[in-house]
C-alpha cells in the first residue's frame, strides 16, 4: 500500500496534522499503536484558553475552568494568584483526542489502530515502513511521514534525528472526596522531598474531584513516582482533614524537559509535538504548542507534496517557521527550568519570599499567561530586582541566582 503521508501517533499534534493534509485530498494514514484513541491517558488535561481561541476545538471536552493558583514553596510559603478572567480549562483528555481523530477521519484520513511502526527506511523517492498491525507484520510505502510519537519517540534515531535526552516520570491520581477549597484554583507544590526535579499539583474538576499528581527526575530521586505521590496525597489529606478520599484512576506518563530537539526535519520526515520537544519545560504543557506546530507542519507538508519537493532543503521551512513562532518561548522556559533545577529548597524559599511582594503579584496577575510565560518577565524584572535589593541576604541570593543562570547556558 502506498500513501502520500503517514502520521505516526494519534495525539492532538498528530491528528491535527493528519486532518490538515487529508483535507487537501492527499492519501493520509494515521497510525496509533494502542487499541483505542486517548488511552492510556498521559496528561493532566490543563489547557490554555488560547487553544480554544486559535483552533476549532470541541467545547464539550471542557470539564472546568481555572483563573487562580496557589503555589507553595518547600517550607510552605504561599503565593496566591487571582486573575480577572479564565486562564485555562481542565479537559476530558480522552474525549479531546477522540474528537480530534474523528475530525481527521471525516476529512478523509484513514485510521489504523493497534498499529506500531517498527522501522523506517528513507529512499530518494519513497519512505518504506515496517509496521505491525494487530500482531501481523507488513510493509507500507509513503511519500512523507510525520513523526508524532510523543515524549519518547523511537524512530527519530533511525533517520539521524535525536529526541529528548532528559525525561521525567509522571504519575497522577484522579481522586474523589478531596473537598476542594476553590474549584477555579490550581495548587502547585515545590520541594525536593515532594517532587525532586519538578513539582506536584492539585487540579480540580469540581468541588469534590481533583487530579493529584507529580513528576520526578529519576536520576536524583531516591524512590519511585508512586512513593512520592502516595506520600504527597497523604500529606494534603491530613493537612485539610479530608477523610473520604478515594483514588478512582491512575495515569502515568513521560515529560521531556531537554527543550526542542536540535533538528525536527530530514528528508521526507517532519517531527511535531512532544516528539520534537515543542513543550514548555517549566510546566510540561505541550498540547497548545503542539497544535500550533501541527498547523505549520500541515501547511508545509501540503506545499511540498503538491510540488513533490520533499527533501530537507524544502522541509526545512517547517522548522524555520515554528521556531520563529514559539522558539523564544521555548528557550525562555528552558532557561527558567535549568535555573529551577539548580536551586536548593532553601534557595527556592528565598525566591518565594521575593516573589510574594505585592507589586510583583499584581504584575503576575495582570500579565501572567500559562501559555506565554515569558510575557511576564519584562514588566516583572524591575520590581523583582528592587525587592531583591531590600535586604543584604536577598542581594546575595540574587547574585547566586544570576550565577546559576549564566552557568546553565555555558
What is the topology?
Blueprint: E1 2-8, H1 12-22, E2 28-31, E3 46-48, H2 49-54, E4 62-66, E5 68-72, E6 78-82, E7 88-91, H3 93-106, E8 110-112, E9 115-122, E10 127-133, E11 136-147, E12 167-176, E13 185-189, E14 200-204, E15 209-216, H4 225-240, E16 246-256, E17 265-266, E18 269-271, H5 287-307, H6 312-342, H7 345-355, H8 358-367, H9 377-388, H10 392-409
Parallel strand pairs: 1-2, 1-11, 2-8, 5-13, 11-18
Antiparallel strand pairs: 3-7, 4-7, 5-6, 9-10, 10-11, 12-15, 12-16, 13-14, 14-15, 17-18
What can you see in these coordinates?
The chain is an alpha/beta fold and 410 residues long. The protein has 3 domains: 2-39 and 46-56 and 92-161 and 261-334, 3-Layer(bba) Sandwich (FAD/NAD(P)-binding domain); 167-256, D-Amino Acid Oxidase, subunit A, domain 2 (D-Amino Acid Oxidase, Chain A, domain 2, 2-Layer Sandwich); 343-409, no CATH class. Helices cover 37% and strands 26% of the residues. The chain has 10 helices and 18 strands. Strands 1, 2, 8, 9, 10, 11, 17 and 18 form an 8-stranded mixed sheet that branches. Strands 6-5-13-14-15-12-16 form a 7-stranded mixed sheet. A 3-stranded antiparallel sheet has the order 3-7-4. A hairpin with a 4-residue loop joins β14 (200-204) and β15 (209-216). α1 (12-22) packs parallel to α3 and α1 runs parallel beside α5 (287-307). The longest helix has 31 residues, at 312-342. The chain is globular and about 65 Å long. It starts with a strand and ends with a helix. The model has no long low-confidence stretch (mean pLDDT 91).
Amino acid at each position: 500500500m502506498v500513501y502520500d503521508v503517514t502520521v505516526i501517533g494519534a495525539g492532538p499534534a498528530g491528528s491535527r496534522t493528519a486532518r490538515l493534509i487529508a483535507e487537501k485530498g492527499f492519501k493520509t494514514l494515521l497510525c496509533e499503536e494502542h487499541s483505542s484513541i486517548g488511552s492510556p491517558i498521559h496528561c493532566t488535561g490543563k489547557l490554555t484558553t488560547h487553544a480554544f481561541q486559535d483552533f476549532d476545538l470541541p467545547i464539550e471536552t471542557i470539564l472546568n475552568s481555572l483563573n487562580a493558583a496557589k503555589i507553595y514553596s518547600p517550607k510552605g510559603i504561599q503565593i496566591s494568584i487571582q486573575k480577572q478572567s479564565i486562564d485555562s480549562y481542565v479537559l476530558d483528555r480522552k474525549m479531546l483526542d477522540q474528537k480530534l481523530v474523528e475530525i481527521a477521519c471525516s476529512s478523509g484520513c484513514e485510521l489504523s489502530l493497534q498499529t506500531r511502526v517498527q522501522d523506517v527506511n528513507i529512499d530518494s523517492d519513497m519512505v518504506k515502513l515496517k509496521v505491525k498491525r494487530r500482531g501481523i507484520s507488513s510493509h507500507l510505502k509513503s511519500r512523507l511521514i510525520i513523526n508524532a510519537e510523543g515524549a519518547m519517540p523511537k524512530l527519530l534515531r533511525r533517520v539521524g534525528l535525536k529526541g529528548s535526552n532528559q525525561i521525567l516520570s509522571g504519575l497522577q491520581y484522579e481522586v474523589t472526596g478531596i473537598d476542594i477549597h476553590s474549584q477555579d484554583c490550581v495548587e502547585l507544590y515545590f520541594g525536593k522531598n515532594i517532587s525532586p526535579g519538578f513539582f506536584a499539583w492539585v487540579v480540580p474538576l469540581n468541588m469534590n474531584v481533583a487530579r493529584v499528581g507529580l513528576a520526578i527526575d529519576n536520576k536524583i530521586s531516591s524512590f519511585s513516582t508512586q512513593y512520592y505521590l502516595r506520600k504527597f496525597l497523604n500529606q494534603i489529606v491530613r493537612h485539610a482533614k479530608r477523610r473520604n478520599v478515594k483514588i478512582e484512576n491512575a495515569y502515568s506518563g513521560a515529560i521531556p524537559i531537554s527543550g526542542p530537539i536540535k533538528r525536527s526535519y530530514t528528508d521526507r520526515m517532519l517531527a511535531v509535538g512532544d516528539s520534537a520537544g515543542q513543550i514548555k519545560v517549566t510546566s510540561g504543557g505541550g498540547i497548545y504548542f503542539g497544535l500550533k506546530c501541527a498547523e505549520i507542519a500541515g501547511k508545509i507538508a501540503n506545499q511540498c507534496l503538491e510540488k513533490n519537493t520533499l527533501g530537507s532543503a524544502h522541509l526545512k521551512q517547517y522548522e524555520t517557521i515554528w521556531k520563529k513562532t514559539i522558539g523564544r518561548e521555548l528557550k525562555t522556559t528552558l532557561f527558567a527550568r535549568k535555573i529551577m533545577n539548580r536551586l536548593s529548597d532553601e534557595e527556592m524559599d528565598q525566591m518565594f519570599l521575593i516573589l510574594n511582594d505585592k507589586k510583583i503579584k499584581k504584575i503576575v496577575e495582570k500579565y501572567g499567561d500559562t501559555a506565554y510565560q515569558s510575557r511576564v518577565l519584562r514588566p516583572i524584572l524591575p520590581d523583582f530586582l528592587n525587592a531583591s535589593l531590600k535586604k543584604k541576604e536577598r542581594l546575595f541570593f540574587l547574585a547566586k541566582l544570576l550565577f546559576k543562570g549564566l552557568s546553565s547556558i555555558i
